[in-house]
Amino acid sequence: MIDIPLNIKKINVNDFLEFLWDRFSKEIGPVACQHFYIETGDPQVYIYDVNWAHRTLPFSASMQFYNHTNKGIYKVVLDVTYENTSINGDHEKAIADIIKDANKIDLHTVINARRIYFPVRSKYHFGCDYFFPESNLGITSINGVLYFYFSVEYISKSQLDMYILERVKLTCAIFTLVTQHLFEYEPNNKIYCTDIDNNTTKENYFIDKDGFVDADEIIKNDKLYLPNEAHKIISAIIRDDKCKNSALRFAESIKLRHEVEHDRIHNLFKIQYELLGYVSAIESLLDTTEKTITVACNNCGAPIDKTQRKITNKFNDFVKIHSLNKKSVMTAMKDLYNDRSKFVHMGESLTKSNTMGSKPLLLEGKSYNIGFPYYYLNIHEFTGYLLRSSMSQPNINS
Known about the structure:
Largest sheet: 6 strands, antiparallel
Structural class: alpha+beta
């Protein structure tokens, strides 16, 4: 067993581990692991416990990385054992040497940067190319195929593959929210990986449609164009995890909507999950931290502390602010939130398949049932409008 002191800053922890795994796989063998993240007696120190074993290797290795939540990794305890006691190998020293060398390396010198172009499937093509240098995102066409592109930094090929999957999904979500149109990765066309060229020049023609609601408002001559506030929305999503989550939930809901439109009979139930996504997209932007207030005890009147989040009130306030107090939007979003609560907390169905086809309305006293909530036809547009309004006005406290 060997104790190896380390000095890996918090910001570099994951790049350091990625670099180690890359070196291990190249110089020793496949890194197949069981991973555990263990609490210690110190609330700021956790042990990343790795058990490394692979059928092609004669040893098993235990590595315990001590990670301080503010300072980073400060040591690792290494222990190598052999299944066959007759083996007299030097794997422990080899692993230790790699760890010690990695501790000395400036990780910036081993980071690679590439630009990834990936093919996209959409109902519309853009009327021009776009490039947003502050976010390193762009839109172009290659041989008549629509491509989105982004820049990424990575250490190993496996890390690059993981980043590509994450960024492809996020980039599609970004432009789905910005335009109100669904974009999906098209696997039948080639992904391009190139050197980064920050001198990219694009037309960047924007339609003067700040605060648009209907997706058709940014279509001209059957071509799609970005609205004026696109760069603000894109920047907000790239830099803020709350905005990332919001964009992803919105895009997932739009995808479900397309599946319902494609086959309503078999996919009608997905409307309920689509509606959940719209609520989650807004809730992602809210301050949901608990706050302590003092209230009077119901029995004795004594003051007691109570924690609360008031998410419902914050949701309604968000809608009120970003809809500019428009009654039709506020009413629809309030009913959406109430229906979402019925579905989540009571299991109440929000759809009825027996309304499909050429049937009369189902009359229910003073109301009627059409198989889905009355607001469904416009709720995606209302939600997209509210999210774009919030993200293009960063000074407004959501």
